[in-house]
Design a protein that fits this description.
The complex is a heterodimer of chains A (790) and B (284). With 790 residues, chain A is α+β, with helices and mostly antiparallel strands. Chain A folds into five domains: 166 residues, 2-Layer Sandwich (Beta-Lactamase), CATH 3.30.450; 85 residues; 149 residues, Beta-Lactamase (2-Layer Sandwich); 109 residues, Beta-Lactamase; 143 residues, 2-Layer Sandwich (Beta-Lactamase). In chain A, 56% of the residues lie in helices and 20% in strands. Chain A contains 24 helices and 22 strands. In chain A, strand 21 and strand 22 form a beta hairpin. The longest helix of chain A is centred in the middle third of the chain and has 79 residues. Chain B is an alpha/beta fold. Chain B folds into two domains: 63 residues, no CATH class; 156 residues, Vaccinia Virus protein VP39 (Rossmann fold, 3-Layer(aba) Sandwich), CATH 3.40.50.150. Chain B has ten helices and ten strands. Chain B is globular, with a radius of gyration of 20 Å. Chains A and B meet through helix 12 of A and helix 2 and helix 5 of B.
Chain lengths: 790, 284
């Protein structure tokens, strides 16, 4: 069956038709053959009967001749007639007795018919007839037909045994011819079928290929079957289908390429695909338009968002410097909007009167530094700030910008003012002018950015405020720290001061105690009233503390000396300390002498606040003094003598002065005290050696002398000799203003009356000049010696 | 802040003083023990160091040493501090030099210079400024720099103005007298910047030098009519005080005046070499 399923149509037709033909022809042949065989047999039977009839006739003749019944003569006579076959080779006639014994037969004389056959004939009970029987011979059994006729005279059957085989021998030839005819006609039919079906098959093939291609989605070439058969129709329809598909495909392709306006007609009213495509195109068209719209919206949205992001960034940067921030914002905003000019005004609410201040302006890519302030409600900018609403003008009066608006000079066509507001609070105004009109989304964008700017301004303001506060607090902290440090130092100073004072107080206390225990100590007012006294004083005067205090010191003084004391007191009050011995009259007029120091006490202003008296009871000493008044007289005499001597020495002095004057002119004179103190140098010294008077005088020779410094031992010797009254001479040189000076020094110790060293005189001579001066000097020295010895 | 620190002992102080002495020319050995101890304590607390680390740092870091030395010193001063002293100067001391051709004044331990400017203001009011040579020294170079600038905090130092009024505008010896001397004559007050800024004619006049009373002697090749050394010797011990008095005595002209702080006095050997007039000590 599978093989059948795989067969092509022609093959199937062939496989059906050809065997059918063969069967039909074969059956026809078979039937024909059957008919002809039976007729042949019938003909043979009929001919046999005819033959039998003739034999009967002959038998009759013979009978007549020979008498009635069968006799040998009859057999003899008849035998000849029975010796030859009727029509075929073996259909020899026979005379068969009623019991089936061959009475005459060429071969079977004496033989018998099978019993069965005789019975069948008897059964037929007919005078004539035929019967098919099996002829059995020795070696073979053959089906034969026995045609018989009863022949009364003999009481026997004249019969002919026909062999169908032989009979049909003729028919067999016919059969072969017929088979041939069947075969040939079958072949012819097969061929015919083949040739008739071939074009159909081919056409089908042709169409099948295309249909297959179609099935695979390809678009095949046209089918070219042009006959008027069904295939032709089919082909035409197919071609139409192909054309339709082609145009539909093209249409689809055009749609694919977005050529939505491509001309397309559906193949028919019911062209599902075409209509579907058309519908699709409409949908696409609609989708495309929507897409366009969406794209545009997307563009706007992305422009919007990118812008917001960009300005978000800008606002995040630099948000600690308002000016730079505003510059960045307006510059970018003008560029982003493709506008021409722009400005940011910030609401200044630091002070009580609020006004808008131009933070930054941007025009024609060039920043314009224009310091501008606009009052609230003034002009468009001010109005915008007050109304807190966006103002958009498409028609701007000529020179509006320059005059009323805050920006530069050109006159743009569109002007946009957007308030910078945050939660209904105004922070400023953005003004943007452009030569192009602003799209709604641009305006919305500026408003949005405005909010961001307002937020930033708010936070920047807050930041600045916070920073300011921070700085303030930082500063305060630093100041506090500095203050604290200062306080600490103040504390330290106070503490140190206090310690110092404690120390001083302690010291003073010790001193005061010492004074109080050993010395007389009084505090007095400026007027001389005693305000405080110690026990030493009380013991000395014999008055009690209460008696003494409040007393005028003056009243205790011996009346004879009071006047002097009052003068002295005045000196003290004028600010000088005074030492004196006071003669006091104590209780019961006891006489007391007091060695006294009176010191004025001043406050920090230097004003006299009290007078302190420190004293010692020197009564004993004073008494001794009085006792030695005599001695005093002597002393007076001595003093007088001394005076005389002083006079003399004054005389000497004068003389010496004269000498010195002379010396002064020529010599370097230095007067040295016994302890080495240089008490005088003359001008010659200054002249020759360049030493200034004040550099040398009042200094000690041992401190400035060259020898003393460099050869201390030698100096010591030299000095000792002088102390012992030995005159010393030395020479030295030194360079004064580039010139070498030689000086000869003569140190002469001068002794007083008691042989004690009184002064040393150094006479120096500038020996560089000449020797004569040296001699002169010698003579002067000699003279001087004499003078002094006087 | 580290917790309560161990009290600085005499031994610690000794180490500190010796360390500084060994690595620099500063000598604090004759400073007042108690005061120096407190300063050392403060330094240890401020730097949050123990003594060993402090000493190590002092040895290896010269800058640190300078900083510590500066912190050891106490710098308190103000404009016309202790007005009575300025009254004394005005009424009793400065008139002594009225006829001098030059008046040499040395502010020893001038700190941040307020005393120097006070003195110049007073001299100017007494028409003696053009004859005055002002020398000012301190151990601490930081305060010297501040002194040179002559800029002071305003807010914390409002007392300055009171003192100014008391010394310059009023006369305690005569309450009816009132000299309306505007502050702007001598300094600008900026309340916003919180500053008192001395006028240029004042700031450019004095010679400011770094000077250590302990070791430097007289660095000015001049003798002085007036030496102000106020609230300095309180940080010194008795020995050092006497050394300083000797230094001052030697560098004063006869009848020259040494002015000490409010609670400072000369006791001891040098007391007799001066005649006292309030806080002023006049060389005999």
């Amino acid at each position: 069956m599978k093989a059948l399923a795989n067969m092509k149509l022609t093959q199937r037709i062939q496989i059906v038709i050809i065997p059918l033909m063969v069967i039909l022809f074969a059956m026809a042949g078979l039937i024909l053959n059957q008919f002809s065989s039976s007729r042949t047999i019938n003909n043979a039977i009929h001919e046999a009967f005819v033959y039998i009839d003739r034999l009967t006739d002959l038998a009759n003749i013979v009978e007549q001749k020979t008498g009635p019944g069968l006799s040998a003569n009859d057999i003899f006579e008849l035998k000849g007639y029975f010796s030859k076959p009727a029509y075929q080779k073996t259909d020899y006639p026979a005379l068969i007795s009623k019991n089936g014994q061959y009475l005459i037969h060429v071969t079977r004389q004496g033989g018998r018919l099978p019993l069965q056959t005789i019975q069948d004939i008897k059964l037929q009970n007919a005078k004539e007839g035929y019967i098919s029987y099996l002829d059995v011979t020795e070696n073979k059994t053959e089906q034969r037909i026995l045609v018989y006729k009863y022949y009364k005279p003999y009481n026997a059957y004249i019969a002919i045994s026909l062999s169908p085989k032989e009979t049909l021998e003729q028919v067999k030839v016919n059969r072969r011819a017929m088979i041939l005819i069947v075969v040939i006609s079958s072949l012819i039919i097969a061929l015919m079928v083949y040739y008739i079906l071939k074009p159909v098959s081919k056409g089908l093939m042709h169409l099948t290929v295309r249909l297959r291609q179609l099935a695979q989605g390809e678009i095949p070439s046209h089918a070219n079957i042009n006959d008027k058969s069904e295939l032709g129709d089919l082909s035409q329809s197919l071609n139409r289908l192909i054309d339709g598909l082609k145009s539909t495909t093209e249409f689809a392709r055009q749609i694919e390429q977005n050529h939505l306006d491509f001309e397309f007609k559906p193949m028919s009213k019911n062209d599902q695909l075409g209509l579907a495509l058309l519908q699709m195109r409409e949908s696409l068209k609609k989708a495309y338009l929507e897409e366009q719209k969406r794209k545009e919206e997307d563009n706007i949205r992305s422009w919007f968002n990118a812008g917001l992001a960009k300005f978000g960034d800008i606002l995040r940067q630099n948000n600690n410097n308002l000016i730079i921030l505003a510059d960045n914002v307006i510059q970018n905003l003008v560029n982003y909007l493709d506008a021409n000019q722009g400005g940011i005004f910030m609401l200044n609410d630091h002070d009580s009167d609020q006004y808008l201040e131009l933070l930054s302006a941007f025009a024609f890519n060039r920043k314009k530094f224009i310091q501008k302030t606009i009052m609230l409600g003034e002009g468009l900018v001010g109005t915008c700030a007050v109304e807190k609403q966006t103002i958009y003008l498409k028609e701007i009066p000529q020179d509006y910008i320059a005059i009323t608006s805050g920006l530069g000079e050109a006159t743009p066509t569109a002007l946009l003012l957007v308030p910078l507001k945050l939660e209904d609070k105004i922070f400023g105004v953005i003004e943007i002018a452009s030569f192009n009109e602003f799209a709604p989304h641009q305006i919305e964008f500026v408003e949005k950015v405005g909010e961001s700017i307002a937020t930033t301004l708010n936070s920047v303001k807050n930041n600045l405020k916070t920073q300011e506060l921070l700085e303030q607090s930082q500063q305060q902290r630093e100041e506090m720290a500095a203050q604290e440090e200062e306080m600490r130092q103040n504390m330290e100073e106070m503490q140190a001061t206090q310690e110092e004072m404690q120390r001083k107080n302690l010291e003073l206390e010790i001193i005061t105690n010492a004074i109080n225990q050993s010395l007389i100590s009084l505090s007095l007012t400026e007027d001389g009233f005693i305000t405080d006294s110690n026990t030493v004083f009380q013991e000395m005067t014999g008055y009690s503390k209460s008696e003494v205090e409040g007393m005028l010191l003056e009243n205790l003084i011996n009346p004879d000396e009071r006047e002097g004391f009052i003068q002295l007191w005045q000196t003290v009050v004028n600010g000088q300390s005074v030492n004196t011995t006071l003669h006091l009259l104590g209780n019961n007029n006891r006489e007391r002498f007091m060695l006294t120091t009176l010191s004025p006490g001043f406050d920090s202003m230097g004003l006299l606040i009290k007078i302190l008296l420190i004293g010692q009871d020197v009564t004993e000493a004073k008494k001794l003094e009085i006792m030695t008044q005599q001695q005093a007289k002597e002393i007076e005499q001595n003093l007088r003598k001394l005076k005389k001597e002083q006079d003399i020495s004054a005389q000497r002095q004068r003389e010496m002065e004269t000498l010195l004057k002379a010396l002064d002119q020529n010599c370097l004179v230095t007067i040295i005290e016994p302890d080495g103190l240089i008490s005088y140098i003359n001008n010659k010294n200054v002249e020759v050696l360049g030493d200034k008077k004040e550099d040398i005088e009042n200094r000690y020779l041992q401190d400035i002398d060259y020898t003393a410094k460099n050869k201390p031992k030698e100096f010591e010797r030299f000095w000792k000799a002088l102390q012992n009254g030995k005159k010393q001479t030395r020479e030295f040189s030194l360079t004064v203003s580039g010139k070498v000076k030689w000086v000869l020094e003569n140190f002469t110790p001068i002794m007083d009356e008691n042989g004690q060293l009184y002064k040393i005189i150094n006479i120096g001579l500038d020996i560089t000049e000449n020797k004569q001066k040296e001699e002169e000097l010698n003579s002067i020295i000699a003279q001087l010696k004499e003078q002094l010895k006087k | 802040m580290a917790g309560q620190r161990m009290q600085v002992t005499d031994q610690d102080l000794q180490y500190f003083v010796n360390t500084i002495k060994s690595v620099s020319r500063y000598d604090f050995s004759e400073y007042s023990d108690k005061s120096l101890k407190r300063r050392l304590q403060k330094i240890l607390e401020d730097y949050n160091l123990d003594l060993t680390s402090l000493l190590t740092n002092l040895r290896i870091d010269k800058d640190f040493l300078e900083k510590v030395v500066k912190e050891v010193t106490v710098n308190t001063t103000e404009l016309f501090r202790d007005p009575p002293v300025w009254h004394l100067l005005r009424s009793r001391i400065l008139p002594r030099f009225k006829n001098n051709k030059t008046i040499n004044i040395w502010h020893a331990g001038c700190s941040t210079g307020q005393e120097v400017y006070s003195m110049m203001i007073l001299l100017n009011e007494m028409e003696m400024l053009d004859r005055a040579k002002i020398f000012a020294t301190d151990l601490n170079t930081d305060v010297l720099e501040a002194a040179k600038l002559g800029v002071y905090k305003y807010r914390f130092n409002l007392g300055y103005l009171d003192n100014f009024d008391k010394v310059i505008k009023q006369n305690p010896l005569n309450f009816e007298e009132y000299n309306d001397v505007p502050y702007e004559k001598y300094f600008d007050i900026d309340k916003v910047k919180d500053t008192i800024t001395m006028k240029k004619f004042l700031t450019e006049r004095p010679i400011f030098r770094k000077h250590d009373l302990v070791v430097d002697g007289n660095i000015f090749f001049a003798k002085f009519d007036l030496i102000l050394c106020r609230n300095v010797i309180i940080y010194f011990n008795y020995t050092l005080q006497n050394k300083v008095f000797e230094l001052f005595h030697n560098n004063l002209y006869p009848k020259g005046v040494l002015l000490l702080g409010m609670h400072e006095t000369i006791l001891g050997p040098w007391a007799t070499r001066f005649e006292r007039l309030g806080q002023a000590y006049i060389k005999k």
